[in-house]
Design goal:
The complex is a heterodimer of chains A (about 425) and B (about 375).
Chain A (H helix, E strand, L loop, with lengths): L1 H24 L5 E7 L6 H14 L3 E7 L6 H12 L6 E5 L2 H8 L8 H6 L2 H4 L2 H7 E2 L2 E2 L2 E2 L3 E2 L2 E4 L1 H7 L7 H13 L3 E3 L4 H16 L1 H9 L7 H14 L11 H10 L2 E6 L2 H9 L9 E4 L6 E5 L1 E4 L7 H12 L1 H11 L15 H12 L1 E4 L9 H17 L2 H14 L5
Parallel strand pairs in A: 1-2, 1-3, 9-10, 12-14
Antiparallel strand pairs in A: 3-13, 4-5, 6-13, 7-12, 8-10, 8-11
Helix pairs in contact in A: 2-15, 2-16, 10-11, 10-12, 10-18, 12-19, 18-19
Chain B lengths: L1 H36 L21 H8 L4 H33 L5 H9 L6 H11 L9 H4 L15 E6 L3 H20 L4 H22 L12 E5 L2 H26 L2 H9 L4 H12 L1 H17 L2 H7 L9 H10 L4 H33 L1
Antiparallel strand pairs in B: 1-2
Classes of the chains: A alpha/beta (about 425), B mainly alpha (about 375).
Chain lengths: ~425, ~375
């Protein structure tokens, strides 16, 4: 008797749950959701996949995909600024995680603290601690990272290296020896492109010269840019530049990668979107067609940058935006988006079988390496500093004066409130 | 009498809306930009809902011209001058030359005219992208000789770091005074034929004296910077100038061609009868007659050269200071660095530079009309 009652109860409960499930899946949110991003061209499909998940969960919400084209968001960011100043914020917008968000929008008190959403969804454990520290301040956590890119990667073609009789260097000293051999054979040792890639190379060199702790100290203001260590960075960077191609400023990063693929250059330091480019566009197999290692002297360190979405104060459809952020941070959203985008998930529990060989290796490193932020892609410094740093870099490329560049960096750091 | 004033009333009422709109949206905003350029609207909280703006006087301007970190702006300013001069010389010269050739009515003139005018219908961003490919260091123009069996060129059209005509920004004040002396002397020489006495008294003597004084005592003038800072003409800007000339010489050609067609055939015949060669006809008759066209071409082109933005963006990217331009710098300073005050200051400097092109023209045309009355 008791047994059958239990059975009956179980059946009732099961029926109730079955009935309740669809009701739970389809939320009762309605209205609009405007998503502001610069993911148009190659990155459009990845964003569309995320929007599809959102639409399945919230069928009554009308999603407005407001993209402004332009690489790394140059145009989108200025449109966003005029919109925010005009009191017309989108519901959620894309921004590079880190100081680019914190130094601009959080400082201007325009963002909502996302800590409650992080806690409610268990994201405090899902994301690495080092990452959460870099996207938050003592007042809160400010964005949901959607993807992780690695910046300190050195790319090469193994077959070419074999032909030239060299091996991928682990340190810059090794690189200089290898570079001399390559130069003698008429090969450009390190391919470089237009000026932002010089900034990109600089941060990898700086991380190598300083190490992770001092790199972090640089951005917390504990280490001066014009200290002996700071000057050392520029000296090493100047030495590395001697082995780059002279026509760098008129090349795009893809053209620099092409130089490596075609065998005109041996190495290239670029973010891991280069893996996507070589695997998808150039049809090379990761691991055999092209290969990679951490840029010299940075093994065990993972310099990251991330695209993320935040929640502006006064968003017209706040609840819809919160639901959107939940999709972004979820395991399903993350593992749908990243294999298409060619990046890795920020979550520690992502399903690695969905990624290619490079993605798997990067994800493995992300789990165990020391995580540091990228300067060239907006993690460690605010926009004011980044803009001024482009001028300092320009000055250095022209004069190659390490002392002056270090002094100028310190000045712009003080001006932009990084150093004291 | 009453009829007249009613007509006037109607005219005033009809014009009033546009006067008000222009007053607010052009002059009002210029005024607002001037005000912003005199504040310290920048930094972390620049984008907050009620940003704090304090009046700081001319600090932004002083910093732009003499600050340690604003070398980039100064290079941009120098570039803008070279862009303007070379674009004017190139586009007006080549446009005029093509117009003269087409004025001789070669076969297929209509077709050729379209060919030359066509580049203008492209947007700068398209022109920039095309020329970026053409001027790529390892392709395009540089491999042309290989088709004829020659060696490829190695000229770095867009990425050269070489600079010629270098001067030191430290000597800013003497340079300005030299330029002023030069302008005086040129004006004086221009007026020499019509009114020698006035030309000497008003222009030539003061110009020469000013030049001499600066040459002798220029060292006593204050230095603009505490250290040496050299600027000059970067060879990397050649590629951009080339593309701009390509785009706009068709336009000046159309202007001149219309002018040449407007000159009556009788005049040409008369010149021929007097024994003028084709060359003499153009140099002494046709081109002087088209002075108004030259002036409007110069004004429009100088304007364009001061607004150069998308072309540079497409060809060398935003962060290549060697080929930079104040307009690009203004955009980056305002919208990337969030330094609204300094961005406004750059805008006002550009506005004043544009004014130096247009105000003399306005003054001259106003005087002409008054004299004609």
């Amino acid at each position: 008797m008791k047994n059958s009652l239990a059975k009956l109860l179980f059946v009732v409960a099961a029926v109730a749950m079955l009935g309740a499930l669809p009701a739970q899946a389809a939320s009762n949110l309605s209205g609009d959701l405007e998503i502001f991003s610069w993911w148009a061209g190659d990155e459009g499909p990845a964003l569309e996949a995320l929007i599809d998940i959102y639409k399945k969960e919230n069928p009554n919400v009308n999603v407005i995909n407001a993209t402004v084209t332009g690489g790394s968001g140059v145009n989108a960011k200025s449109v966003l600024k005029t919109r925010m100043l005009g009191g017309n914020p989108p519901d959620s917008f894309q921004v590079h995680a880190g100081q680019e968000l914190i130094g601009t929008w959080v400082k201007a008190d325009r963002m909502e603290d996302l800590t409650p959403i992080f806690k409610a969804n268990g994201w405090m454990e899902a994301f690495p601690k080092g990452l959460i520290k870099l996207i938050g301040t003592d007042k809160g956590i400010w964005s949901v990272p959607v993807n992780i890119h690695r910046s300190n990667v050195m790319w090469f073609v193994p077959a070419n290296l074999k032909k030239w009789g060299v091996e991928a260097p682990k340190t810059w000293d090794e690189f200089f020896t290898v570079a001399e051999t390559l130069k003698a054979k008429g090969v450009v040792p390190l391919a470089l492109a237009q000026n932002w890639t010089a900034n990109h190379l600089w941060e990898s060199v700086a991380l190598a010269a300083l190490g992770a702790d001092k790199w972090d100290a640089l951005w917390s203001g504990d280490l001066a840019f014009d200290s002996a260590d700071g000057v050392k960075v520029w000296e090493l960077f100047g030495k590395v530049l001697k082995y780059t191609n002279s026509d760098a400023t008129s090349l795009s990063w893809q053209q620099a990668t092409d130089m490596v693929v075609d065998g005109r250059a041996a190495f290239n330091v670029m973010g891991d979107w280069a893996a996507g480019y070589m695997a998808t566009t150039k049809k090379l197999a990761p691991g055999s067609g092209f290969a990679w290692s951490a840029s010299p002297d940075t093994t065990g360190e993972f310099m990251f940058l991330a695209d993320s979405f935040g929640l502006p104060k006064g968003a017209p459809h706040r609840d819809n935006a919160v639901a959107w952020l939940k999709v972004l941070g979820s395991l399903e959203g993350s593992d749908t988006f990243n294999p298409i985008k060619g990046s890795i998930s920020a979550r520690l529990d992502s399903d690695l079988s969905k990624y290619n060989a490079y993605g798997q290796s990067a994800a493995a490193d992300f789990g165990k390496d020391r995580i540091v932020g990228s300067l060239a892609h907006g993690v460690t410094a605010n926009e004011g500093f980044m803009n001024d740093f482009a001028s300092v870099m320009e000055m250095f490329l022209k004069s190659r004066n390490a002392q002056a560049a270090a002094k100028a960096s310190q000045q712009i750091a003080v001006k932009n409130g990084i150093a004291k | 009498m009453r009829e007249v004033s009613r007509d006037r009333m109607k005219a005033v009422i009809a014009l009033l809306p546009s006067v008000i709109l222009i007053g607010v949206f052009v002059y009002g905003f210029i005024g607002n930009t001037v005000w912003i350029s005199l504040t310290d609207w920048r930094g972390g909280a620049a984008l907050s809902e009620n940003p704090v703006k304090n009046f700081v006087g001319f600090e932004n301007y002083v910093e732009l011209f003499t600050g340690f970190l604003d070398g980039r702006f100064r290079q941009d300013l120098v570039n803008a001058v070279y862009y303007s001069i070379l674009l004017l010389a190139g586009a007006v010269g080549i446009g005029m030359f093509i117009a003269i050739l087409l004025d001789r009515k070669p076969r297929g003139e209509d077709f050729l005219r379209t060919v030359f005018l066509y580049p203008m219908s492209l947007s700068f961003i398209v022109t920039g992208t095309i020329w970026r490919w053409l001027l790529a260091p390892q392709g395009g123009v540089n491999i042309l000789p290989t088709y004829l069996g020659g060696e490829p060129l190695h000229f770095q059209w867009l990425s050269s770091m070489k600079t010629v005509l270098v001067f030191d920004w430290q000597n800013l004040f003497p340079i300005i005074l030299y330029a002023a002396a030069f302008v005086f002397i040129v004006l004086g020489l221009g007026k020499l034929r019509r009114d020698p006495g006035r030309a000497f008294k008003r222009y030539l003597v003061p110009g020469v004296v000013l030049g001499a004084v600066v040459w002798l005592f220029g060292d006593l003038l204050p230095r603009a910077l505490f250290m040496e800072e050299t600027h000059g003409f970067n060879l990397a800007t050649l590629g951009i100038i080339l593309a701009t000339i390509w785009q706009y010489s068709g336009y000046t050609m159309a202007l001149y061609l219309a002018g040449f067609n407007g000159i009556s055939q009788d005049l040409m015949d008369a010149a021929r009868l007097d024994g003028a060669s084709d060359f003499d006809y153009y140099v002494h008759v046709a081109i002087p007659m088209l002075k108004p066209i030259t002036i409007s071409a110069v004004i429009i082109l100088s304007h364009i050269s001061l607004k150069m933005f998308d072309l540079i963006f497409a060809m060398t990217g935003p962060d290549n200071a060697a080929t930079g331009h104040p307009a690009l710098n203004m955009y980056l300073t305002t919208f990337r660095a969030n330094d609204f005050a300094k961005g406004a200051a750059i805008a006002i400097v550009l506005f004043l530079v544009a004014g130096t092109f247009i105000i003399p023209y306005l003054v001259a045309s106003y005087r002409q009309r008054r004299n004609a009355r």
